[in-house]
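hey can u check if this looks right to u? its 221 residues, i copy pasted from the old doc so theres a chance i mangled smth
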Amino acid sequence: MGFGYAVPAGELGWLTLTIGHLSANKYWGEAERRRGPLCTSTLIKCPEGLVLVDPPVPPAEVPRLLIEQAGIAASDVDVVFLTHFHGDHRFGLEAFPGADWLMAEPEIDFARAAAGPEEAELLARIRPAGAEVVPGLRVLHTPGHTPGLSSIVFAWRDRRVAVCGDAVMTEDHFRAREGHHNSTDFAQASASIELIAREADVVVPGHGAAFDIAWTREGGR
């Protein structure tokens, strides 16, 4: 039963499946691509089942990732939520044929406008997420990186956690209130980071480790 077995019945728990990184990180003094991209992926256990946010690796690599990091199989995942439709945040989507695939409706519309045949086939299977992915997992519209990008916000113990995808690329982007170089709207990206700063205590960024907002403030923002 893996990770879900460790969470008491009726409670919510979460873990990081992968800590992502950028192919080039300007805050590290990098101007050119140094590595392949990897997104941060999160698994959330709630009373309704297991929700995976942003499957980060190709389908063939998913079984090993899940068994090593959570002790589960792909068939144990009930919902896959995509923060947005960029390839590095949906690499492993097809490894979960039995799960519900969800994404915010504005992002579905945005992705369809530029989709090729293979992407259109995937988008046809993705259902619009409502106000909540499941009860307790609130969808928060955080555009800027893409027009429809949405985060998930939930209560955990005495904290509010925001799983942000690329609304917050890294902790450095959060400190700078800055979108990544490929953002569609930098003003919106900055406004979304400000919104997340008001809505959450803990941030799970799109390409880095989770961090506590209070610590970030104390650390020099």
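The mean pLDDT is 94.
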